[in-house]
Amino acid sequence: MQPDFLIPPLSSALDAALQNKIDQKTKPLGSLGQLEKLALQIGRVQNSLTSCLNKPCILIFAGDHGIVASGVSAYPQSVTAQMVANFLTGGAAISVFARQHNIALLIVDAGVNADLESHPNLLDAKIGKGTQNFLIDPAMTYDQCSQALKAGADLVLRQYEAGCNCIGFGEMGIGNTSSASLLMHCLTDLPLEQCVGRGTGLNDQQLQNKLAVLQQAVTRHQNLITPFEVLATFGGFEVAMMVGAYLKAAELGMLVLVDGFIASCALLVAHKLHPNMLDYCVFSHVSSEQGHQALLQHFKAKALLNLDLRLGEGSGIALAYPLLQSAVTFLNEMATFDEAGVDH
């Protein structure tokens, strides 16, 4: 059985007061643009006129995918474990950015096809050594999918209990753009061609092979009805854990930062399971992966940044985080017209 989550709609009780507080700052109405909308959203999620960001954290979920055996990636599967080691030694892009902005960074072994050495920042939640090749069999059993959802939720609960109220999720898994593309295709009904991109840098011939393989997988697994069935059939262990993490974070009333294409496809599953999910989400950036742009349109969401990123890892979250700090700081510290003695 899949875990159950209770995600309430955000209360509108403070909306007028929050908007009034923003409007009374010493600036022309609306002149801080998207930053004002961000301050309003953070206040709504926290149900507070004095928002705060406590112990921000990024969890990177890592897992391998059986579909890699069908030639959908430009990189070998071994890169997943190698990049996990790079995260842990502080050498990856997300390691650098998280360190720069004082964001805690934890790596989760959701299903890497390797035996990883223990490390203080590595959390062992391994479901198995990679998923099955969904060109042949479902990626995971329903029991494995439920286990992954619960594991992601439990990891978020642990951060919440340690005082974190602002969390984001990254991923690492060679082949996971293929998994994400099929989740998007099945759950939005957008043509597969709009959901499939170059991932880690496929050339034209490799991209056509990837598209052909994924079309075969769709044909093989028909009559999938629920989002859970789609996730179990085409998802990855790291993607399923992200879904559980999203749902638990919203249930706990945390502010949720969303990264790029794969993270957004995991969010799509969470949103299909619980429509209120998006109210808690801040979209950090729009990726250069074509499916991400279409997915943000599906969400009716506007991302904070557009830097042509296609890295994953939660890198967009770390880069966007200072904007959240600015939104909270202006709301709490910027003078009002009355306080500053400025006519308006």
Keywords:
344 residues, alpha/beta, 5,6-Dimethylbenzimidazole Phosphoribosyltransferase, Chain: A, domain 1, Rossmann fold, 2 domains, 6-stranded parallel β-sheet, 14 helices, 6 strands
Write up what this structure looks like.
- The protein has 344 residues and is α/β, with parallel strands linked by helices.
- The protein has two domains: 15-51 and 329-340, Orthogonal Bundle (5,6-Dimethylbenzimidazole Phosphoribosyltransferase, Chain: A, domain 1), CATH 1.10.1610; 57-321, Rossmann fold (3-Layer(aba) Sandwich).
- It is built from 14 helices and six strands.
- The chain has a six-stranded parallel β-sheet with strand order 3-2-1-4-5-6, sandwiched between helices.
- Helix 1 packs antiparallel against helix 2, helix 2 packs across helix 13 and helix 6 runs antiparallel to helix 9.
- The radius of gyration is 20 Å and the shape is globular.
Summed up, the helix count is: 14
Give the tally of structural domains.
2
Q: Write down the overall geometry.
A: globular
Biggest sheet architecture: 6 strands, parallel
Fraction in beta strands: 5-15%
CATH fold assignment of the largest domain: Rossmann fold
Look at the helices and sheets and give the structural class.
alpha/beta
What is the N-to-C order of secondary-structure elements (H for helix, E for strand)?
A: HHEHHEEHEHHHHHEHEHHH
Mean pLDDT: 96
Strand order of the largest sheet: 3-2-1-4-5-6
What's the CATH superfamily of the largest domain, by name? Nicotinate-nucleotide-dimethylbenzimidazole phosphoribosyltransferase (CobT), large domain
Which percent range fits the helix content?
A: 40-55%
**Total strand segments:** 6
Low-confidence residue ranges: none
Rg estimate, integer Å = 20 Å
Question: Which class of the largest domain in CATH terms?
Answer: Alpha Beta
Q: Indicate the CATH architecture of the largest domain.
A: 3-Layer(aba) Sandwich
